[in-house]
Amino acid sequence: MNVAVKVPDEAYVPEIEQEVLGTLLFGGDFVKVMGFLREEHFIADAHRLLFRAICAAQEQYGSALMPIVSRLLPPDASTLFVQKTDQMPMEYMASLSSQVVTGNAGLERSGKAVVAQWARLKIADAGRTMQEAAYDASADAKAIIQGVTDHLDTISAELRAGPRQKTLHTLDTATDEAIADVREAMARGNGLTGHTWGLTDINAATGGIHPREMVVLGARPSMGKTAVALSVALRTAGSGVGVGFISLEMGAKKLAVRRLTDIAYDWGVKVPYTNLIKGTVTEDELSTIIASNRDADQLPLWIEEQSGLTVSDIRVKVERMAEQAAARKTSLGLLVVDYLQLVRASGRYAGNRVGEIAEISWGLRELGREYGLAIIALSQLSRQVESRDDKRPQLSDLRDSGSIEQDADMVAFLYREAYYLEKAKGKDADKEDERISRLIDVQNELEFIIAKQRNGPTKTVKLFIDIACSAVRNSARW
After folding, report:
1. φ, ψ for residue 100 (rounded to 5)?
2. Could you report the per-residue pLDDT of 288-309, keeping only the tens digit for each?
3. Can you give the pTM of this predicted structure?
């Protein structure tokens, strides 16, 4: 698209665009740039016109050689070229051969440089727009920030649109890649084809948390969503995979306290995390908790505690986390979002909650696919669960939108019978004795209900949980 105002001469480098156009006109492989380079990425009017003709020539004749391209230029092209370049179209195209430096070998890189220049100038344009809006005394600062954020996100998306990964496969090559994954899983010997959950029975049921897939983990309040999510994040990070934790509700310090009591649990220190928050622990307990956590101090785990983030904002946070992971010689592999309904929607579906949740769910799924991340999105469930005798969640309980189920590659629910038993009271002495006896039996039982799994069975896995200490473990171990 056209830059709205005149671009300073020192800000625009025409040779970047000339390199690409010259390469394409003199036999370059158009396929190398067709997936991400578009007409509007060229700043100069004459260059946009040329690239449009090159695209048409490739589509109609499979060639972008000069004689073909010249015939596809519009009738008034000569006037524009003389005004802008002081040359006729054929003369200007011929002169581009001298601008080719890297040629076909560097065409993809040169094409990305064109997009990068476009993005840089569009950012400047966004800055001017923001300044003009901010000088309006009646303007809403939040609206200005959101508008600029959306604009910058669109620009950022263009930069990411390059051929980052192969998306077109023959069945034979896809089969070869699948067999390679199988052999890698066989070599590991643990059945994992994704990142570890840190829970043996869940790994066995799912094969792990898979990159580019989204897991929705739903539950009613007090079922242990955050405890499970943090426990998984700690164990996944402990395997060497970079983990990002977007906490839209709970502060980083509160999560850190839960981490302390979770890890200390394996040392036999069973201190409720609320005791740490209130300071009602002994010096010996605190010393042991600190000692037990020393090995976890350098885990590749990053927590973002800012509330009210949009999917666009989360993308920015992810890019920063990915940079920090790379600096640690690892890669970001898992993103936990706590929780989905607290992600702020754009203004596109204002007032339509179903549309907003659909937008958020789809956005998180695409974020995972774009960055090769496994996504665990926690989700609140509707209150209709509480009205049933059997309060185990079902897919219909996913709150606000059926698109959550549709977008998720896996949906799992958490259920603690003990929570409801603690709130109940027997109708008579015998019923009360039954309730207490049952409560003792299931006090530390957590059901991990796999209600949907694209590539595996649905089933329920029993886990151990000490909700007070935020500790989640394999059931057989405790």
Report:
1. -80, 120
2. 888 888 877 788 999 888 888 8
3. 0.67
